Amino acid sequence: MKKSAIVTRRQALVTGLAGMGSLLLQQCSRPIPPDYGNILRMGDNFTYIAQRTLLPGQTLAREYRFADISSMPATGTTNPAKFSDTYDKLLRNSFSDWQLRIEGSVERPGFLSLEDLKKFPSRTQITKHHCEEGWTAIAEWTGVPLSTVLQYAGIKPSARFVNFHSYDEWIDSIDLYDAFHPQTILAYGMNGKNLSVPHGAPVRLRVEKQIGYKSMKYIHKIEVTDEFVDAGDIGWAWFNGI
Ligand SMILES: Nc1nc2c(c(=O)[nH]1)N[C@H]1C(S)=C(S)[C@@H](COP(=O)(O)O)O[C@H]1N2
Ligand SMILES: [Mo]
Description:
This protein has helices at residues 9-24, 39-54, 85-92, 114-119, 146-153, 176-179, and strands at 99-104, 110-113, 123-130, 136-145, 161-166, 171-175, 185-190, 193-194, 204-206, 219-225. By secondary structure, it is of the alpha+beta class.
């Protein structure tokens, strides 16, 4: 499930139109996500614009009780060591050499180790994961709020999007509205244990206000950008709020 960077003429046209849309909305800096010519995505984009324009503040995703925790299947990539030597080496050392790279529109680009991430104040939340395939699962996630890490790196005023890169070569982004949402965390713990390999070890994203595939597993790089970076169509909408 690699994202393709191939841009067709149609996609370029659609992206161009989205660009025009962003000009219209420029006073509030809310570009329209690409719909890749899919008519259903126009609905998603309407939801996106409506949510970002009309909602006064951040609403929280529902949090559950400990007793509500369910089993959760691991889906998509479940072990990047099968194809990535880099990941395989890190796994063999229990991720003691793992580093999260932070770059782009930040005052202090650099690296954070797992130990560094665990030194920040943590947040634990019991939430429901909604996979686009139809299943849901409730789990407890522990990690550092993304906002804490972005503030630590010194996010620049021109920044608008946060892009994530994973060991299975996923590239995806969220806007700052979701990035600074209090429940958007870089999770290193699940159900009271270190995050397991099938669920995205050592660190995955939890974006509780969007559908399952936005919660990227196996993260190694965060890149803050001033503009929307089109990482290509993966067959799912860029914005899929719940
Ligand atoms: N890097 C990466 N992140 C990913 C995926 C993946 O295959 N690779 N699958 C996504 C999808 S579709 C879902 S539903 C969830 C699954 O998380 P889980 O395997 O912990 O259940 O992770 C999401 N994040
Ligand atoms: Mo999913």
